[in-house]
Amino acid sequence: MTMSKEPSRADTRPVRRFWRVAAVAVASAAMTVGLVGPAAAAPTSNHGHHQKLPSRIELPDGFQPEGITIGKGSTAYLGSRGDGDIIAVNLRNGNRRLVSEGPGTGSIGLKIGGDRLYVAGGAAGTGRVVSVRTGNILASYPFVTPTATNPSFVNDVVLDKRRAWFTDSLRPQLYEVSYARNATKATVTTLRLTGDWVQDTTPGVNNANGIALSPDKRSLLVVQSNTGFLFRVNPQTGVARRVDLGGAPLANGDGLLVRGNTLYAVQNRLNQIAVVRLNGSGSRGRLVDTLTAADLPKGATFDVPTTVAAYKGNLYLPNARFGVASPTTAEYWITRIHR
After folding, report:
1. Could you tell me whether strands 163-168 and 154-159 are parallel, antiparallel, or unpaired per DSSP bridges?
2. Cα–Cα distance between 61 and 219 in angstroms, integer?
């Protein structure tokens, strides 16, 4: 996920206007429809138990997505790097609804655990926990206090059995948030990255980006966007060791997804996904495939995909469209690729 300037309140109006209109429509229907918004996806067929999944799912104009996570059933959750709104999207029919109105700052990476979303807060230097049932912010964690000379960009998050881990693209450290029934009582710890990790302090350069668990769940895998290196991080000490990929760099590395011993690493501005076969500990791996536009279903396209989640043998990637002329009014969508 690439850093972007937080928009002004005026910049977020197209998205907020969409949700006001949708809310009125739902109210007039007496809340009989569970997902709000148009069925903005290619038509699906449902003969018997088979349903064809759409290859492209439209998002609200101006939404500016980055993170995606998939919960129970066919529901995906996405955050806006603009105003921080979080939406739910049905991957079968494209219907969508507002889950939580944003705080006016970005929602970058996010992961679901039970009925809670853990959300990386970008340039605000925060993380937060959101209830998917009520949309309420259960807790907000000010990891750091960003300044003009010492900024922060809390970028992505992964969950293990006991805690959430957040990356910071502008500081060589991870943030650990323990699970707690009352999210406001969670313990927050900063883990400094050492070992092989070398931080580039050039202004605007992304370092730590996507994060995932190693196949054996004992370590954290973190991709460094500016170098294309993948690191295995000891969650107790912060010592980072570069993963031996046989010389294959993950240039423009962004969101990570580990399924079994396979790592999918999104390479955002390259419009591709590196497929890496890892050993159990995640200390070594080899590039076995690269998924590009040529591998997409008919009618599907990439335009700077950032993160990836899996559902029923398919990968789903939101397209952030970094550099588009008018981001607050541009079209955005999710792309499906069978894998």
Report:
1. antiparallel
2. 38
